Automatic annotation (TrEMBL):
It is a multi-pass membrane protein. One of its GO terms (biological process) is D-alanine transmembrane transport. The chain crosses the membrane at residues 6-27, 39-57, 63-82, 94-116, 136-160, 187-211, 242-261, 267-285. PANTHER family: BRANCHED-CHAIN AMINO ACID TRANSPORT SYSTEM PERMEASE PROTEIN LIVH, HIGH-AFFINITY BRANCHED-CHAIN AMINO ACID TRANSPORT SYSTEM PERMEASE PROTEIN LIVH. This is Branched-chain amino acid ABC transporter permease. CDD domains: TM_PBP1_LivH_like. It comes from the Bacteria. Its main location: membrane.
Length: 292
């Protein structure tokens, strides 16, 4: 029982980690809480459903096309909505409110087109299961966890080992200094949105495959769990976000297995409250020192 729940928790926790890493990429560059992040997570699943079930595209093509469209949508949101707002005002609240508007638009559009009912998600790659001792492992779960972990590693390499990643870190330190150093700040910020939302899109598809369904209520749950994971790890920290997602996934699995599945969605709220009370800087965060 213990190892079964641990495996289940790591599997779903890896997807939370991926969403939280995407959220942290954008936050680390702009210190922006992107309220639309979870809506792109939901959108990607519905796009796969549309392209595979209604447009009859091959399953891998439907997934790839969904990821490209969702990522470009996120980049376009920054380029044509958030960037003009940033140029007109220095108020971060205005940009944050705009992302909330985008989120509302996406979720309402989905409900208009598909209704509010849960939709079955196609998964033709049901590869069966195998056993390690008493632990039942589905191949789909293994693939989901590996895919999420690989994507986290790829994004970490991009952020810490590439030129555009250096630009993102430079903007995070001081956007004005980054401009003087020749960094194309708006291009780098747009890439940050593309890559961050791509992480959310991949996780959304993986979770839809995991549960075999999609619905718009996924938004609220994943948004809270993403923020809790990012805060637990240290908001803006990619390694912290990855670890935070795994911790929340494992805690959820143990609560569902040993207490009740009805309580598992409360874990993110409990973690959020405890972190804010006892360690606001998170596991990998740094305390902010204010000079007087």
């Amino acid at each position: 029982m213990f190892f079964q729940q641990l495996f289940n928790g790591i599997t779903i926790g890896a997807t939370y980690s991926l969403v939280a890493v995407g959220f942290s990429i954008v936050y680390s560059v702009l210190e922006l809480v992107n309220f639309a992040h979870g809506s792109f997570y939901v959108l990607a699943g519905y796009l796969v459903l549309t392209m595979y079930s209604f447009m009859a595209l091959p399953y891998p093509v439907a997934i790839l096309a969904s990821l490209i469209v969702t990522g470009l949508f996120g980049a376009a949101m920054n380029k044509f909505l958030l960037e003009p707002i940033r140029k007109k005002t220095s108020s971060g609240e205005s940009v944050m409110t705009a992302t909330l508007g985008v989120s509302t638009f996406i979720l309402n559009l989905i409900m208009v087109l598909y209704g509010s009912e849960t939709k079955p998600f196609p998964n033709p790659m049901n590869l069966g299961k195998f056993y390690i001792g008493s632990v039942i492992m589905k191949w789909n779960q293994v693939i989901i966890a590996i895919a999420a972990i690989i994507m986290i590693i790829v994004m970490s390499i991009i952020i810490y080992k590439t030129k555009i990643g250096s630009g993102m870190r430079a903007i995070a330190q001081d956007v004005s200094a980054a401009k003087l150093m020749g960094v194309n700040t708006e291009l780098v910020i747009t890439f940050a949105f593309f890559s961050g939302i791509l992480c959310a899109a991949i996780a959304g598809i993986l979770v839809a495959m995991y549960y075999g369904s999609v619905d718009t209520t996924m938004y609220l749950g994943v948004s809270m769990k993403t923020f809790a994971a990012a805060l637990l790890g240290g908001i803006g920290s990619l390694p912290g976000a990855a670890l935070g997602g795994i911790i929340i996934g494992v805690l959820e699995a143990f609560v569902a297995g040993y207490i009740s599945a009805d309580w598992k969605d409360c874990i993110a709220f409990i973690v959020l409250i405890l972190v804010l009370l006892f360690r606001p800087s998170g596991l990998f965060g740094h305390k902010e020192i204010k000079k007087v």
